[in-house]
Structure formats: C-alpha cells, structure tokens
User: Fold this.
Amino acid sequence: MRIAYHLGVHCTDDDRLVRTLFRNAERLEAEGIEVPDPARYRNLIRDTAIQLKGATADPALQNSLLDQILDATAPERLILSWENFLAFPAWAVRGALYRTGGERMQAITRIFPDHAAEFHIGLRNPATYLPELHRRQRGRDYDDFIGDADPGDLRWSDLIVNLIEKNPQADICVWADEDTPLIWPEVLRAVSGHSADLALEGQDDLLESLMTAEGMRRMRVYMASHPPQTPAQRRRVVSAFLDKFALPEQLDISFSLPGWTAEMVAAMTAQYERDMAYIATLPGVTVLTP
Assistant:
C-alpha cells in the first residue's frame, strides 16, 4: 500500500482537497483508493508520533492503527490529509518556514514503515501567506509572530530540502497555491492517484468560490459545446473566464504588516518565483504547473 500524505500548507487548501476526495470516497474505493474521514486519524497519528518519539512502529502497532483508520480490507492507496502534519500554525514560522517539517514527517512515516510514502504540498507566496497566517492567529503580536525571521529571506525550498533529507524514500509533489484554480483537477488526481477517466463530483467547487454565478454558468455552457480535449485546453478556458468573471474580493489580497512596503512585497514575490523554479530542479520532486 502507498500512503499519500497531503501536508497543506496552512492558508492554502483549508481542507478543500480532502473534503472533495472524501465526497468521492465510494468511487475512489472502487479503484483501490481509501479516503478515510480525517476525524479517524488526525489525533490518532499525532498521539502515536508523540508516543513513539521517532522510533519505528512494530507490525502489531501498525496493524492496530490501520484497523482504526481503514474501512477497506487492503486498499492499494491511502490518502491522509492534515495541514498540521508539518507544524501547528503557531510554530510555522520559527526562523524558517516549518523548520522541523522534515523531522516531523520522518516520525510520522515511521508509524507506517512497511508502506511507501509520498508527500503532496501546496505552497503560497510568502508575501500573502505571512499576512494571512498572522491574521488567523487572532491578535498575536507581529514581533512575536515573526520572531527573528527575515520575511524577505524565507524560502519554501528550505522546507522541501529538509523533507528530502529526512525522507529520501518519499516522492514529493508540489504546486503553487496561486495556480490551484487552473490545475485543481490535476492536483486532485496527483494526490488520489485515480484514473484519468474518473470525473470527481465537486471538482468545480473551487472555481465556484472564485467566480460569479453567471461566469460559472457561461463557462459550463461553453465547455459543454466545446469540450476541452486536454488539461491544457481546460486551463486556457478556465483562465479566460476567471479573467472576466472573478469575484472582486478574491482579487483584493492585503499584505499590510508592520514595516512592510510595496517594494518589499514585490521583492518577496520575485524571490518566491525564483524559489519555485529552484524547487522544480530538486531530485524526487514533481511540480504541477499550468
């Protein structure tokens, strides 16, 4: 069995991916893919990792945990998703982004050492990620939040390299959160591993949250009369309709934090784009792009 761990990060997915896959659990199960209710495994995995303290689980413990998580007898693929796998939000920025993420996932994969692991992770421009992460921490002082980190020097590649070093056996799939509306079906398939001809219910829910109802209606009419023949064709259609019908509030992203300037945000954005290009060159890493 392969275990696909969806790692978040915070302020990107908000459980949309696992909700969509869980909604299609029966269809996926027919293909040997199990998507359990997250309530069945999140605290269980956290508590077990604490108990093991980095040690490897023995077969009896593995089987006991899988009995609590699985419905199917022997699925080929198991989907586990939690944005707190890498760290809880208060610990996401400690001099680096998810500084101990590699070690945490090493400890978690040692809970199921007899099963191949792969990691899936959406990344977000630090210029918008940091303000949103700070906002969600309910009034936490900015200086305490950012600590000794230099916002302009925070790189996602440090996390990905850490994941590779601590988990060399795991394949890693990465995408930019900003691209997600255009590649959502590909993201869902990368995580679940479902067949290309399986259409998932709810795979347009993300677009519905970003586009006006009229825009969605027109796009569906257009796609019905001009069915995209490839993912690239679908992306071009989606991009065109988003350009015209995106909800205004989805385009208004604030980056107001103490001491931040427009020039700083522009530099962070350029650094993020270079960092994503570098991540694509790392061994064992696949980057999904439009």
User: Anything to note?
Assistant: Strands lie at 2-6, 33-34, 77-81, 116-123, 171-176, 285-288. The chain has one domain: 2-198+253-288.
